[in-house]
Amino acid sequence: MVGSWVALLLLVSVHVIATTYKPDKDSLLQFKAGVVDPGGLLDSWSEWTDPCIDQWPGVSCTCYPFFETGAQRRQTCYPLAPYLANQGSRVLQLNLGDKRVTDWNMLSGTLPSSIGNLTELRILNLRGNSFYGPIPDEWKDLKELESINLGTWVAGHLRRRNCLAPRQTNL
Q1: From residue 133, how far is each of 32, 109, 112, 127 by CA, in Å?
Q2: Is the full-model pTM beyond 0.85?
Q3: Which of 21, 58, 72, 107 could be disulfide-bonded to 88 (CB atoms 3.0-4.6 Å)?
Q4: Helices (H) and strands (E) in the chain — how many of each?
Q5: What are the C-alpha distances in Å from 86 to residues 29, 48, 70, 90?
Q6: Which of 171, 161, 118, 107 is nearest to 141 (CA)?
Q7: Residue 12: Cβ-neighbour burial (10 angstroms; 0-12, 13-18, 19+)
């Protein structure tokens, strides 16, 4: 009987460590609440599911490419620093602009400021959607961002707003 309780406690402990960092999950849910999603791409994003464990569409908590599998795949961004791992899994990629994710769907609305709270985000791709408006000031906190793709007009706009951190090299 005691062994069963210990096994259950270990299982719960591992689950808690592996869940997504709560501020990242909250930011993604704020993102969802602020956009129009006529195709239901974000329907599985809910308070009762986990972005990393349940693999929310367009969200990745690793630096591996979304659509590559097997031993040959290589990381596409800098991995999370080990000292941050005890906080929970962090959202490292938000890819809602790849045709394999959004071919049948188009999100719209203003560019969500909540993305700025994803402070470990490495890759942001919102291309192919219908976002509009200014780049939110909160995005200046995306210091780890390495690659951003928001469509054709944004690269120059980001530079004018001084939103690019030194790591942001791929527009």
Answers
A1: 17, 8, 10, 14
A2: no
A3: 21
A4: 4, 6
A5: 22, 21, 27, 10
A6: 118
A7: exposed
The dihedral region occupied by 89, where left means phi > 0, alpha psi between -120 and 50, and beta the remainder, is beta
SS3 state of residue 148:
strand
Per-residue pLDDT of the chain (171 residues; tens, 9 = 90+): 555 544 444 444 444 445 889 999 999 999 999 999 998 989 999 999 999 899 899 998 887 665 555 555 556 566 666 556 567 888 999 999 877 766 666 899 999 999 999 999 999 999 888 888 889 999 999 999 988 988 765 544 454 444 545 454 444
Residue where the block lists tokens 């596409």: 76
| Token pair of 86 as six digits | 């005890």
Token pair recorded at residue 107: 């999100």
Residues 6+ apart with CB under 8 A from 25: 50, 51
